[in-house]
Amino acid sequence: MHIRGDHAELVVGGRLDVRSAADARTVLHTAIDDGVGDLVLDLSELDSWDATGLGVIMGAHRRAGRCGRRLVLRGVKPQMQRLLVATRLHRILAIEGGIGVESLPRV
């Protein structure tokens, strides 16, 4: 984790799944509780996530809101964007650059 300007940025790599959820949750909660402003979660190095990993992100989103902060997702890959659209979470989560729903390939 590194700090840039007036907000924290976390880069998540590998898999965010049931095996890594507890560790990810701890790191996210600490960053949210100890910082101010937006918390940018860079997912450009994330290979995949499962329902548990997505739940960790949603929990962090809710916690950030309770702390007067905002969780912002950056570098969301197309396959992850499709999941966010399918679950309609793209309407709730702040995603840097947004998601062009019409430009996503159909599966």
TrEMBL record:
A GO molecular function for this record? anti-sigma factor antagonist activity
Q: Which CDD domains match?
A: STAS_anti-anti-sigma_factors
Q: Which Gene3D superfamilies does the record associate with it?
A: STAS domain
The UniProt entry, under Pfam families, shows: STAS_2
Ranges of residues in domain STAS: 1-107
Q: Which InterPro entries did the record assign?
A: Anti-sigma_ant, MlaB-like_STAS, STAS_dom, STAS_dom_sf
Per the similarity annotation, which family is this? Answer: Belongs to the anti-sigma-factor antagonist family.
Annotated protein name in UniProt: Anti-sigma factor antagonist
